[in-house]
Amino acid sequence: MRRRVVVTGIGVITPIGKDVESMWKVLREGGSGIGRITHFDASKFPTKIAAEVKDFDLSKYVDDTAPFAQSGRNVLFAVAAASEAVRSSGILDAAQDPSRFGVYLGAGEGQQDFPAFMKLISESLHDGTIDLERFTQAGLKYLNPQFEMEQEPNMPAAHLAALFNAQGPNLNCLTACAASSQAIGEATEIIRRGDADVMLSGGAHSMIHAFGVTGFNLLSSRARRGSDKTVRIAGAEEECIGRRR
At residue 104, what are phi and psi to the nearest 5 degrees? Predict the structure, then answer.
């Protein structure tokens, strides 16, 4: 007999709502989270619009924010959304074997420190090319090891495991726009085959930084004109750059 899997809790941090009820209300009303980019100076970029999560405060979701002091927005979104989902599920109030509680996310890399990287480039230029020895030395001098580690795609899942004492399977997939759906599907299969009883699953990401916007512009996949009145998209548990319509 196939093991039944059910969803017991939901949490979201999105450009159109930082909880399920507010997000659903905006969706029903056809609202938009698109506006001018404010996370960095995008005035000279072809794309100047994005769906940003505004006025986000992690302290509203967790009692102690210290463990996430060096974390990027992707981790903070994951922690907040997961905290809401876990609370609504009631799982922490039930007797639960930590080794049967797992995490499977579809999460990307953290936000990049563009100014620091440009500083490394400028200090390692020699005769028009990058001197790798100078680049390495500059990296050791200027980069924060903890911040750099927090950029790894596995960090959101690691933080959630630590936060909720989830000692079961811990995985992350990075398959672009399909990642969150893949994570939920594979988490379902983990429960079905008996490798865990509870899985915390979903996705978190933010690409609204200089590197992210540059990359998507080079792919010719982002809107190069428009405003918050002419372009509408919505994101779930992540920040999105305006898609070309």
Answer: -140, 115
**pLDDT confidence of residue 244:** 38
Residue 180 domain flag: yes
Q: Along the chain (245 residues), what's the average pLDDT of each consecutive run of 10 residues?
A: 89 96 95 92 90 95 94 94 95 88 94 85 89 92 89 95 96 94 97 96 92 87 57 40 41
- Report which of 150, 163, 166, 161 is spatially closest to residue 206, judged by C-alpha positions: 150
Range 15-20, long-range pairs (CB < 8 A, 24+ positions): 15/51, 15/52, 15/53, 15/54, 15/234, 15/235, 15/239, 15/240, 16/51, 16/234, 16/235, 18/53, 18/56, 18/80, 19/84, 20/84, 20/88
Return the sign of the alpha-carbon dihedral for residues 34, 36, 42, 44.
positive
Encoding tokens for residue 140?
A: 């050791």
Closest CA to 67 of 78, 56, 51: 78
Predicted TM-score of the model (pTM): 0.85
Q: Which domain holds residue 167?
A: 20-112+151-241
Specify the CATH number for the domain of residue 179: 3.40.47.10
Residue 130 confidence (pLDDT): 92
